[in-house]
Amino acid sequence: MHPYIALPAVAILVLRAWTNNSLTPAGIIAATITAVVHAIHPWSAFFALLVVFFLGGTAVTKVKHDIKARLTHSSTGASGGEGPRTHVQVLANSLVASVLILLHYRQLLAQEKSGKNSQNCWHYGEDLLVVGIVSNYAAVAADTFSSELGILSKSKPRLITSWKLREVPPGTNGGVTIAGFLGGLLVSSGKLYAGRQPGLLGGNAWGPKEIGLWVAAVTIWGLLGSLLDSFLGGWLQASVVDSRTGKVIEGSGGRQVPVRSPHSKKDDDHNSRRVESGLGILDNNSVNMAMAIIMSIGGMMLAGYIWHVPTQATL
Predict the structure, then answer these.
(1) What is the pairing mode between strands 72-74 and 247-250?
(2) Could you tell me if 118 and 152 are in contact, meaning their C-beta atoms sit under 8 angstroms apart?
(3) Pick the residue with more confidence: 207 or 60?
(4) What is the rounded distance in angstroms from the CA atom of residue 96 to the CA atom of residue 26?
(5) SS3 for 185-249, per residue?
(6) 270 falls in which pLDDT band (50, 70, 90)?
(7) pLDDT digit string (tens) for 215-227?
(8) What's the CA gap between 104 and 102, in Å, rounded?
(9) Can you tell me the mean pLDDT for 59-81?
(10) From start to end of 24-177, where are the E strands?
(11) pTM summary value
């Protein structure tokens, strides 16, 4: 991006996060670094993907926030609902894309240094790093929308890791609903519009057929990322429920919820919490990071197989 566009764009994004209390102070620092990494790339498409994810994710988090707050409890003893996101949560969703963007920028600089014309747009069937970047944001966006809209579903979630898809309380890791599925479908296809920026879909061989295949592929991949996150969360992340209210207890900043509350007296807390599902190996941030890594690398490997492009081309 041109500096005269990138600098004010990053400043506006950070200022919005500060004024809307969307991020903690450390989260704002992490988001600023992430935005700068996206903005220094010559193509504006990657910064657009980040902006759409941040603004869309912030907006959907606040949809009926008062209702969401009543559906779950917080591990801190306050009401449920998502608070300001931390630096760990920011990086869990964007670090993979940031690394791939830096690798792609390095490739463009190497092309210029060797005397080749640096690509100003993406040619169909080439450049697996671009696939990985878009795969990351399609997956994390679909997961965010699925979670934030699915919890508002009038029907109870079904645990995706149970053989009988048993009903679980709203907010349970691995719990899925039709509303959440449709929310993920909407945003994973909507992310493509952000990709119609300088740099993407402007190179050789991009006809109507190729664009249609790309849209369908990224939409499906985003949904698969959301489902993978549900499976990982249902298996590896413990969902702790307050036995007295039947509500899920959410960990502050995406951290693991202790089965024994540090905010209650021993007698009152006795047997008041139970594990609804999951092994408790990972917390929510680790699950999100694992999903982003798998879907980004998996997207590049699948595209490389279909397009006959060796994965070594990413280095």
Answers:
(1) parallel
(2) no
(3) 60
(4) 19
(5) HHHHHHHHHHHCCCCCCCCCCCCHHHHHHHHHHHHHHHHHHHHHHHHHHHHHCCEEEECCCCEEE
(6) very low
(7) 899 999 999 999 9
(8) 5
(9) 80
(10) 72-74, 158-159, 175-176
(11) 0.91
72 CA to centre of own chain: 21
| Distance from the first to the final alpha carbon of the chain | 23
Would you state the structure tokens that stand for residue 177, as one six-digit string?
């609903």
Distance CA 89, CA 255 (A): 10
Strands annotated E in the chain: 72-74, 158-159, 175-176, 239-242, 247-250, 273-277
Tokens of 274: 């139970």
Contact 187, 217 (CB under 8 A): no
Burial 7-36 (b: 16+ CB within 10 A, else e): eebbeebbeebeeeebbbeebbebbbebbe
Structure tokens, 182? 């449709």
CB-CB neighbours of 65 under 10 Å:
12
Burial of residue 265 (CB within 10 Å: 0-12, 13-18, 19+) is: exposed
Nearest residue to 48 (alpha-carbon basis) of 226, 275, 233, 200: 200
Q: What is the C-alpha to C-alpha distance for residues 224 and 139, in angstroms, rounded to an integer?
A: 7
The helix/strand/coil state of 28 is: helix
Cα–Cα distance list, 194 to 92, 188, 252 (Å)? 21, 11, 31
Q: What amino acid is encoded at 294 in this protein?
A: I
Q: How far is CA 109 from the centre of its chain?
A: 29
Nearest to 86 by CA among 257, 254, 237: 254
